[in-house]
Amino acid sequence: QNVNSYGKDFKNRNVTFATLLEAVALLGIPRLRFLTSHPFDFSDDIIEVMKRHENLMKYVHLPVQSGSNEILRSMGRRYTREQYLEIVQKLRDQLPGIALSTDIIVGFPNESEEQFMETVSLIKEVKYESAFTFIYSPRKGTPAAKLIDNVSKKEKAARFKILTKALEETIAESSYAMVGNIYEILVDGWSKKDKSVLSGYTETNKLVHFRGEASHIGKIVRVRILESHTYSLIGELVDE
To answer: From edge to edge, which strands make up the β-sheet containing 59-61?
Structure first.
């Protein structure tokens, strides 16, 4: 799941994920995004390509897994908290308005309360737009399976709850800031919960619900955001 390592096993080492990304961007597809990016292999070349092509969405999924250097080392992630934040800063500086999402594991073997809180502080610092969060459980055949799973289920659940709250606060904050503004929405189809309402996504991968016609599906339309929720937005079509 690491697209950034593309080309590293090729005889022609001049071929990289950045060159592949640019080649695809030049095809003229209106919207493109990619995942998943491993921080260890995230190069400046990728950022340069994203700057050159407007059809590459301002959205990067950058799994951090933990905000603790000790836990990152135990996971074998090959980067530090500081190196991760350096990538985040580069993305923010060179691609204003970019949205970031991540993956996080809580309750990894030997994770202390202090180390867990380092992850919480990272969430508040980065201000992710979304995240996939997981409670650690041993998986056969992995290096981590050899470690003692010594964080109790009760403690894992408690930490997961704290983590979720921190994420929801930052996500809700970014969603609220969008109210009143107009965005281009790629219409995905009818809402799963209300078949009279359309659903689509901003270029930063925010889910938006609004009333429209079947003819809008598959198109990019302009929508004004009227209301924000933690994981979705409510809007109205803006006249063409």
So the answer is: 59-61, 99-106, 130-135
CB 91 within 8 A of CB 51: no
CATH class of 3-176: alpha beta
Backbone angle region of 67, left / alpha / beta, with phi > 0 → left and psi within -120 to 50 → alpha: alpha
Instruction: Report the 10 Å Cβ neighbour count for 32.
Output: 15
Q: What b-and-e string marks burial along 71-84, b requiring 16 or more CB atoms within 10 Å of the CB?
A: bbebbebebebebb
Query: Superfamily assignment of 182-237 in CATH?
Result: Nucleic acid-binding proteins (2.40.50.140)
Can you give the pTM of this predicted structure? Answer: 0.93
Interatomic CA distance for residues 228 and 235, integer angstroms: 9
The total of other beta-carbon atoms located within 10 Å of residue 130's CB is 20
One-letter identity of residue 208? V
Find out whether 109 and 61 touch, Cβ atoms under 8 Å: no
- DSSP for residue 146: G
What is the distance of C-alpha 20 from the center of its chain? 21
Q: What is the pLDDT of residues 138-189, one digit of tens each?
A: 999 999 999 999 999 999 999 999 999 999 999 999 999 999 999 999 999 9
Question: Which sequence spans correspond to the domains of the chain?
Answer: 3-176, 182-237
* CA angle, residues 34, 28, 225, in degrees to nearest 5: 65
Q: What is the largest CA-CA distance in the chain?
A: 60
